[in-house]
Amino acid sequence: MHFPQTSEYALRIMAVLVSSEESPLSSALLAERTRIPDAYLSKICRKLVVANLLVSRRGQGGGFRLARPAEEITLGQILEAVDFDPHPDRCVFGQRACSEQASCPLHEPWARLREVYTEWAEGTTLAKLG
């Protein structure tokens, strides 16, 4: 599965912060460790803070850290925070109404793929990555 760059970067940021434990990482250090441009990293981190996945602190000794334990943060929450939508409402075949009653040839396999994604996203926590 291919994720948009912002989604990949958000996952990368969170994975690096898991390994930093309780101490905050500065934006500059986080950008260096994740190889994400600083301005782009700041935009992503802002979304993660708004979603209550990260906490930010300014000043000496400040930076970013996880808002709660890694066991309580799922990959789905991270992806949702940066607006990744794995369940587009449009039909792969371009049909206006693709449902169980009026389905396209790919409706069933596509529905199964969405189910597998949801199980993975909701069942995989940051703690499982390390």
Written account of the structure:
The chain has 130 residues and is mainly alpha-helical. It has a single domain (5-129), classed as Orthogonal Bundle (Arc Repressor Mutant, subunit A). The protein is built from 5 helices and 2 strands, in the order H-H-H-E-E-H-H. A two-stranded antiparallel sheet has the order 1-2.
Please outline what is shown here.
Helix content is 46%, strand content 6%. With 130 residues, the protein is mainly alpha-helical.
Number of distinct helices: 5
Specify the CATH class. Answer: Mainly Alpha
| Order of secondary-structure elements | HHHEEHH
What do we call the CATH topology?
Arc Repressor Mutant, subunit A
Helix content: 40-55%
What value does the average pLDDT take? Answer: 89
Tally of discrete structural domains = 1
Distance between the termini: 21 Å
**Spatial extent as radius of gyration:** 17 Å
- Provide the low-confidence segments as ranges: none
Identify the overall geometry: elongated
Strand count, sense and closure of the main sheet?
2 strands, antiparallel
Largest sheet, spatial ordering of strands: 1-2
- Main structural class: mainly alpha
Percentage beta strand: 5-15%
Q: Tell me the CATH architecture.
A: Orthogonal Bundle
Number of strands: 2
CATH superfamily: Winged helix-like DNA-binding domain superfamily/Winged helix DNA-binding domain
